């Protein structure tokens, strides 16, 4: 990094101690911005780097609730409203024991540029809690969500801040959150949350959007060199919402997804993952991935080793941040991986990213390849604002076009700044410049 970027990064470290994931996300952006600052000195003069790295608002609050044994429980809630220069704050809520302020800041920071890349009028934010819905009953999840929203509602609104789901927050949790918002405000303000149920303001394709969008991005990447997904072997880490629908769409397009995982291990199925069975186990029964192997003769479960040791053509990390490290990247490269696209937020460590790029593996960063979820959230907001509802095919076509546009924007920007074919440079620069120009246009606010 040049001196201006190093100085700004040192300030981030000093002002945000102990937030390793946030530091990593900032550095990953900054490493792309050297040519941008040379071409646009106004960004330095207007202190855009410092302004973008400081959230517009950080909200931390107590979430008290009562469990099924009548014991009072306390969790911590967060909402980091990072940037609203392009539109209302937009970004998911994550419920997971690992959540702390640094997690939310890293996710919110990434969201700024991801949302900018979609071309939709939405800003960047993220929120969540250290609550664990997987170890809670339905009633406990409802009471927690109601308490969480009782505090957060005052900061939300369809023109202010529009949360969605993320890890640990699916349709059930969004329903409980929206019900409490409606009860408190006495408004059926459909556009205040996305990921809603289809019968009360939700959008078709929203459930599938992040996974589908990641695969559409890969399809476009391969097409630049005259290739397709047909006949390729794919690994998808995770078995949550993103992973399930990445598997579904990859197989729709002719690939064979042979492995997926959860925190207990991974399964290999050389015949291709049975998506219906996977949905039954993970979405209905909420069981562990070993159950898949127990019910499928062609599958084996592995609690040791790494899913990235499985030889494949395409790898889609769709679980969580920093799940794919340098060692795993080396294994994939040795086994002949052709392309890697991030379906989760920052799932590849910096070492892994550099390894892929140095080896000539086509690599797509999450802010580009997993932007389909938030893009379809914005489509849901459009439908809510118009009191309208689009059919599945029309919405999927819009999603596919948005992902194609993001891909092409990354390629064009990388070319313009002297880094042809570098999706990381293209995504970072395209997202940053759009936000930076808006920051300057609005003055010092």
| Tally of domains | 3
Give, in spatial order, the strands making up the sheet with the most strands: 9-8-7-6-10-11-12
The structural class is: alpha/beta
Distance between the termini: 27 Å
Tally of contiguous helical segments: 18
CATH superfamily of the largest domain: NAD(P)-binding Rossmann-like Domain
Global mean pLDDT: 97
Q: Give unreliable regions as ranges.
A: none
Helix content: 40-55%
Shape: globular
Radius of gyration: 21 Å
Order of helices and strands: HHHHHEEEHEHEHHEHEEHHEEHEHEHHHH
Classify the beta-strand content into a percent band: 15-25%
The CATH class name of the largest domain reads Alpha Beta
Number of strands: 12
Task: Name the CATH architecture of the largest domain.
Answer: 3-Layer(aba) Sandwich
